[in-house]
Design goal:
single chain; alpha+beta; three-stranded mixed sheet; 9 strands; 60% helix; rod-shaped; disordered N terminus
């Protein structure tokens, strides 16, 4: 009885008296599934064939295996084609220059051409031979080769034992070396066995012929081939599944590491920046100021501008907090447009901002503050071009022995003096010169 290839994917499956259900719910309770594979259901192996139950996974495996063994399969096909043609010499020696020899020669050349054509298509489009159509073409090619061999057995006068050994070696080699589905390979082997039996009965009219032992030996060859094919199927697919699981784990790990790096970068950004305006936050301002003051003790210069938005509460009350947030963003953009790339714009809190100026002091710092004041007044919030935001600015330059707190306190005192004058003004710290105000409006 021929073995019918079953194992449809994603189904009800009986395994050690236990029914398992695959997603599509088709009922195949007679299927026997290998329960030892620790993979997900779609990577289970059929207990008989050793192939994956899921046809999609099986197709992926065959594509990878074909890529890995394409050269081997190509050489096997070439060897079969050359061997089929070369045995025509033995045909001629056995049959002589007869019509039978000519017919057998034509059959051999035709089968060799088909083998070479299949080999050519495999090399040209390997992916096709991981699909059902490609495997069916290989199966048809095998059947044609077996038919030629059986024709040679029928026409040539060798004894039955010699032909039985030849067919057994051919069947066993094809099952092990030629790619194909397990059930189809076994069925082709059984067909070869039946064909040889029919040829032996018709060809050798000898009552003393030990036909049963010859057929039994050929059947053993088919069974051996099936057993070897099953073992190699299972081992190759288990290794492939393990590698694929490792690849998945590595990909998951890489994604997790990338996500971790992204979150770390976001946290580092949040630790340095104000999320609304993208200006530096107070912590970053204090760190940078402390570093610059350390350089000031070694002879460097540093100044600090402290900015406060004039009448900001009325903007929130009149237009809403969303417009107020937009106004703060435009304030930072205006301030950045008026300072150097090395200057640090920071949000101290609420509507209060600071600009840290390395290598500037005195009149240069006041001139920078004036540029900032004008730039902020000219930077209208997006979508509210009629809204004008002004700032009051206090300027303080570092003195010998200054700390960050003292520098901030002097700039803060100067900024409040600027607000008391009516706002939209630049006021230097006590003892420094350079007060400026906006033109009367």
């Amino acid at each position: 009885m021929m073995l019918v290839e079953g194992a449809a994917p994603r189904q009800h499956v009986r395994c050690k008296d236990k029914v398992e259900t695959f997603p599509d719910g088709a009922d195949t309770r007679g299927m026997d599934i290998d329960p030892t594979i620790p993979n997900r259901g779609h990577e289970r192996l059929h207990r008989v064939s050793g192939e994956f139950v899921d046809p999609g996974v099986e197709s992926e495996f065959r594509a990878d295996a074909l890529d890995a063994h394409l050269h081997l399969y190509s050489q096997v096909a070439l060897l079969i084609a050359v061997g089929l043609s070369a045995f025509a010499v033995l045909d001629l020696a056995s049959l002589g220059p007869t019509r039978a020899a000519a017919c057998l020669l034509m059959a051999r050349l035709g089968a060799s051409a088909l083998v070479l054509l299949t080999r050519h298509r495999m090399l040209a489009d390997p992916a096709q031979f991981a699909s059902t159509a490609g495997l069916d073409l290989i199966a048809v090619t095998q059947l044609v080769v077996y038919a030629v061999v059986l024709l040679a057995c029928a026409l040539r006068p060798e004894d039955a034992s010699t032909n039985a050994v030849s067919v057994a070696v051919l069947v066993l080699g094809a099952m092990v070396l030629v790619p194909g589905r397990f059930g189809l390979q076994v069925n082709i082997g059984v067909l070869a066995l039946a064909g040889f039996t029919a040829v032996s009965v018709l060809r050798y009219d000898d009552p003393a012929l030990p036909l049963l032992p010859l057929v039994a030996n050929l059947g053993v060859a088919v069974l051996w081939g099936a057993a070897i094919l099953r073992i190699t199927n299972r081992d190759a697919r288990r290794r492939w599944a393990a590698v694929r699981a490792g690849d998945r784990a590595n990909a998951d790990l890489e994604r997790e590491l990338a996500e971790s790096d992204r979150l770390r970068a976001e946290l580092q950004t949040l630790a340095r920046e104000d999320p609304l305006t993208s200006a530096a936050n107070r912590r970053e301002l204090l760190r940078a100021a402390d570093e610059l003051l350390g350089e000031r003790r070694r002879g460097g210069r540093v100044s600090l501008l402290l900015l406060d938005a004039d009448g900001f509460k009325s903007i929130n009350d009149r237009f809403g907090h969303a417009v107020g947030d937009t106004a703060l963003v435009s304030l930072v953009e205006g301030a950045r447009s008026a300072v150097r790339s090395e200057d640090l714009v920071a949000r101290v809190g609420g509507e209060e901002f600071a600009v840290l100026l390395p290598d500037l002091d005195g009149e240069a710092a006041v001139r920078t503050a004036e540029r900032v004041r004008r730039a902020v007044a000219a930077a209208a919030p997006e979508g509210h071009e009629g809204l004008t935001l002004t700032v009051s600015i206090g300027v303080a330059s570092a003195e010998p022995g200054d700390t960050v707190e003292r520098l901030l306190a002097r700039a803060d005192e100067a900024m409040y003096r600027a607000k008391r004058t009516g706002g939209n003004a630049v006021e230097p710290a006590s003892g420094e010169s350079g007060r400026t105000t906006a033109p009367a409006r």
